[in-house]
Design brief:
Blueprint lengths: L3 E4 L2 H15 L7 E6 L3 H10 L5 E11 L5 E10 L10 E8 L3 H9 L4 E7 L9 E5 L4 E4 L18
Parallel strand pairs: 1-8, 2-3, 2-5, 5-6, 6-7
Antiparallel strand pairs: 3-4
């Protein structure tokens, strides 16, 4: 399967997080947020501000292994830091940047069954595991988040040789 890439800028991420926060207001009030690290940390901070929530907990789940080739392969998810303050999730909002295959989301939902799960972006395989998302992305698209990329100098077209 060919992989397509979509770049999300800081501005776009911020707009999408604010839009998600606006959509979440009718589902609250919430006691706090559980951010799925690492991708959910920045959206959780933005949404926490917009919903006026100060209690932001995190859960750390590792499900991608780095192979020798440098490629990432999805393995069995492991919780390396639980969300102790959230209990069973009652009154909490789970935030992630993306639900892809649903492997991480399924595990977190099992641990926090009473929480409301929201993310910025969802792929078709992961959609059933989220309660709310902003943008659906094709399954074959790899999202490049602002924290995964760096701005590079691009020479003017007039200097291009060839």
């Amino acid at each position: 399967m060919a992989i397509n890439y979509a770049t999300v800028t800081w501005d776009q991420l911020h707009r999408d997080a604010r839009l998600l926060a606006e959509q979440l207001i009718p589902h609250g009030p919430f006691k706090g947020i559980v951010a799925i690290t690492r991708g959910g940390l920045i959206p959780a901070a933005i949404i926490g501000r917009e919903l006026d929530l100060r209690l932001i907990e995190s859960i750390s789940v590792v499900s991608y292994d780095q192979e020798n080739s440098g490629e990432q392969a999805q393995g069995e998810p492991q919780v390396i830091k639980p969300a102790a303050a959230a209990g069973d999730g009652d009154g909490f909002l789970i935030i992630d940047d993306l639900v892809d295959s649903g492997v991480t989301a399924k595990l977190v939902r099992k641990l926090l069954p009473r929480a409301y799960f929201a993310c910025l972006y969802a792929k078709p395989s992961g959609r059933p595991f989220t309660d709310r998302f902003v943008v659906e992305v094709p399954q074959d698209t790899w999202i490049l988040f602002p924290w995964d990329t760096a701005p590079l100098f691009v020479p003017p077209l007039a200097r291009k040789t060839g």
